[in-house]
Amino acid sequence: xxxxxxxxxxxxxxxxxxxxxxxxxxxxxxxxxxxxxxxxxxxxxxxxxxxxxxxxxxxxxxxxxxxxxxxxxxxxxxxxxxxxxxxxxxxxxxxxxxxxxxxxxxxxxxxxxxxxxxxxxxxxxxxxxxxxxxxxxxxxxxxxxxxxxxxxxxxxxxxxxxxxxxxxxxxxxxxxxxxxxxxxxxxxxxxx
Length: 192
Description:
- The protein has about 190 residues and is of the alpha+beta class.
- About 50% of the residues lie in helices and about 25% in strands.
- The protein has helices at about 1-10, 15-25, 80-85, 105-115, 120-145, 145-155, 160-165, 165-175, 180-190; strands at about 30, 35-40, 45-55, 55-60, 65-70, 75-80, 95, 100-105.
- The strands form two sheets. It has a four-stranded antiparallel β-sheet.
- It is globular.
């Protein structure tokens, strides 16, 4: 279980065996069912999640509509970072789309790890840099790309998501309606 996590961490830093043991002690393993909300709108959270298995989405709700802003699969961190850092209520929801296996790190434990493991600061900084780059790329795509170009990029960069996420959620993630997504998929299929 934690072996998969440390394969991920090794991309950023090389924790010592002692540091790995401290991390293992701090993180809790949890299995959850589809439709489980890891973070709920208007609730405070003190947990970060590392996804070992499954698919998760992050979304906002506006006028009763759910707008997917992030879809994540295995070997990634996710959290409602604003709530986690500030202690305020979350303005987003994080929901499991499939049965998920997670490692969970509480804020109090992370704060202790910062003091006990010097490399933890560097590791978290690098994770946040990756997250910032992903959000910047998504924003840039919304500004510069057409919906069809966004869909084509998703198809080439992360094709398994298309099989794992319902079409209406993918549509909001791409910033379009489900009907528009159907038309785009039909055009692409006819070109192939």
